[in-house]
Every structure is written in C-alpha cells, then in structure tokens.
Structure to design on (400 residues):
DNA sequence: AACATTACGGAACAGCGCTCCGTAATGCAA
DNA sequence: TTGCATTACGGAGCGCTGTTCCGTAATGTT
C-alpha cells in the first residue's frame, strides 16, 4: 500500500520527519572534552550531562561505546594513517620513517588517557574500536615495516605488522599515569629489535 | 592499666579468642581456582561463593582486592624472582639468562588471565599488586640486565630495569585472548633492542 | 556456666554500562 | 491552518560491579 508517494522522487527512504540530527555534533564535542578531562573511560552519564542530552540520545547515535570513541578520534587516526606514506616519501631512510611514524602514534595514544588500554580489549566491549584501529593502521605499519627491513634471510618468518602495532599500543598503556615509565623509548627499542630481526 | 597479665608472657597482643583462621587457606585455594577459571578480574562474589564464605570474610582477610591477588600468586612470583640469579649462574651467557628469565616471566603472566593488566593499574585499585611486583622483580631484572649488557658507551643513559619490566608486563596484556598476538616473540625483540642499545 | 572477644555472613550502598518506553518536537498532507 | 505520522529525545530502570557495615554465631577463658 501507499505507492502514492506523489511527485518528488520514487526513492526517498528517509522521509526525514521529526527533528533532524541536532545533537550529533554537540555530542561529539562534549565527548571529546570529557575524554581529555576524564579519560576515555569516563562515565557515559558524564558525557550525556556535559552535552546536555539524555542517555538514550547517546546510545541511539552510537550504539556501542566504542563507536563513540571511534567517531571522536576518527580524524586523528586518519591523519596518523595518512602520515605513514608521507613520512616514507620525505624521510631519508625507511627506518627513519618507521621510527618517526611510531613516535607519532605513541604521542597520539599517550596524550589520550586510556586510549591505548581501550585499543586492545582490556576495557570492556571495545570491539569496534579495536577493529577500526587494526583495519586502518596495520596496512600503514606494514608498508613502513616492509620498506624498513631488509628482505634478505628467511630462515625464520619475521614478526608481522599486526603484532608490531599491537605491541606498540600495549607499550603505551598507562604511560600517562606513571612518571618514570617511558613508553616512547621502549617503543623505539622494540623497533630496534624488530629491524635487527630482519637484518642478519 | 592492666599489667596483671598473669603468667605466660607480658606481650600477647593477640588473645586469639574466638574461631581461629579457619577459612584463610580455603579462601586462597578458592580464589586461585576462580582466577584460573574466570581470570583475576572475577567478581568477588564468585570467589566468596566458591569458597563458601561471605563477602565480609574476604575483605577482612584481604582489605583490598590486590592483596588477595598478591597472596594467591606470592609463591609463583617468589619462584620467578629466585629463578633470576639461578639462571644467571647456570646459563652460558648473561644474555641467555636474561632471555630465559623473560620467557619465564612472560609465561607466568600470560597463563594467568588478566594478571598482566592488573599488574600496572589498568584494572582499578591494583596498588598493592603493582608495588609488590615492582619491589620484588625490579632488582632481579636489574641484575640480569647489568650482566647482559656491555657497560661500555655512556653517551645516552640506557633504559632502566623498571621500564624494561613494565614493558614486558605491558606486552603481555591481552595475550591470552588474541590468537595472532605473540607476546613472547615481542618481548624477545624488545630485549634485543635493549641489549643493542647497550652495545654499539 | 557465663562472659568477652572475635570471626562470620549477607544485606545495603554507590557506581557503572546499557535498555526501554512514554513524551515531545517536527515536517508533510489535507 | 490544522492534523497526523514519524522521529528524536530524556531519564527511569535493570543488572552488574566493588566495598562497607552490622547483627549474629562460634569460641576460649574465667
């Protein structure tokens, strides 16, 4: 029934009745503000209050908590991903590019409280977040890795980009809290080990 | 007042009236069983139920959750700490000793679900646990590290045992869950990097 | 036998993530 | 202009968590 859609267009699945997305952007802004203030594990109620909306609104726009986090940090993850090829082109050596990119990534993770933890499933229900990070950054990391290590010697299969990326992420967990803990230095040392594995 | 403590001994602060610690050992056994089944983040109620005691009993014996975890794993941490000097004496090279010890430590962390995470404050209120691990294992790790790396070259201060230990711990987070994630390999690569830093 | 002392058990509190539904706002149609 | 279908909204409610607290029961001593 009701093919009498009158004129306009036969395809018009979203009638767009009711109030349009008024709060989506306000929500993202508020979430970003709360994340920097209280970390990515901040209570959902706090975000809702800051944005001046109810709980329901948050969960309709972002069915799971991870999706909110992803939405907030999408721009920065994207720019981090795009930095990979650019660094490879600009740097004098592939190794320098890899190290610079890792430093960039570490800085990103460390400055967002708890992001590194949420990245790999320690925090509950970070499915989407983990998947997004992996999907977007593993290829970038892989390209840098391939370029940086000598292809010679194949007695033992070298560690793959997925493991390197997760290793870097793990090393950044809790880095913002402990003063004596130097995640960036450890990451560079890990990379040294990874590259030494390739060479012989 | 009340120096009339009769005979026995003037110092006897614990009169030991009432039921003695009947449940302490049962508690530890139950906690250990639950930890292997559901990880160290298992609900306290689950531990209490398994042990057949009430919540109050747990929190009287172990005021904070960390202390219970520490008590459960004290033996294994201790044996891990003692393995350090022994490996150093038995191994052909100090590097081999360090690597073997790290493998031991990694195996310990990975087999206990969530222990690595609880080790460094990602899980809430793991103060005591973190302190105990650090206090007990940093010296051991430091000894192995000193022995394994050449003392030459001092342009840049090498990374300290605290950071190496925390780095190893962090790399083990979530290792039991992700099939493709190879924490042990990453730890060995990190060590490669650390040792390469010392040499030149 | 009666008591003081201690351990015990579980109800109760505060916090969390997430769901659900009654209500209010909105744009199109008559 | 008026009415209505459609959609977004807000927050109470549910189940779960860690932790505290207190009435009660068991115990060794007097």
């Amino acid at each position: 029934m009701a093919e009498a859609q009158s004129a306009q267009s036969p395809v018009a699945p979203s009638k767009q009745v009711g109030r349009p997305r008024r709060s989506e952007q306000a929500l993202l802004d508020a979430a970003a503000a709360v994340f920097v203030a209280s970390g990515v594990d901040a209570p959902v109620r706090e975000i809702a209050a800051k944005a001046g909306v109810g709980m329901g609104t948050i969960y309709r726009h972002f069915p799971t908590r991870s999706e909110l986090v992803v939405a907030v940090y999408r721009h920065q993850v994207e720019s981090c991903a795009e930095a990979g090829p650019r660094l490879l082109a600009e740097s004098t050596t592939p190794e320098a590019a890899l190290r610079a990119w890792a430093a960039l990534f570490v800085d990103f993770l460390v400055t967002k409280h708890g992001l590194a933890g949420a990245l790999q499933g320690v925090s509950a229900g970070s499915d989407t977040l983990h998947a997004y990070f992996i999907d977007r950054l593993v290829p970038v990391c892989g390209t840098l890795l391939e370029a940086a290590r000598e292809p010679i010697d194949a007695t033992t299969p070298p560690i793959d980009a997925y493991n390197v990326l997760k290793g870097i992420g793990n090393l950044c967990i809790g880095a913002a809290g402990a003063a004596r803990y130097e995640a960036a230095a450890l990451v560079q040392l890990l990379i040294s080990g990874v590259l030494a594995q390739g060479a012989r």
About this structure: Residues 6, 15-20, 43-45, 55-56, 59, 64-65, 124-125 of chain A lie near DNA strand C (CB under 10 Å from a C1'). The two ends of chain A are 73 Å apart (CA to CA). The interface with chain B takes residues 117, 120-123, 159, 162-164, 166-167, 170-171, 173-174, 177-178, 180-182, 185-186, 188-194, 196-197 of chain A (CB under 8 Å).
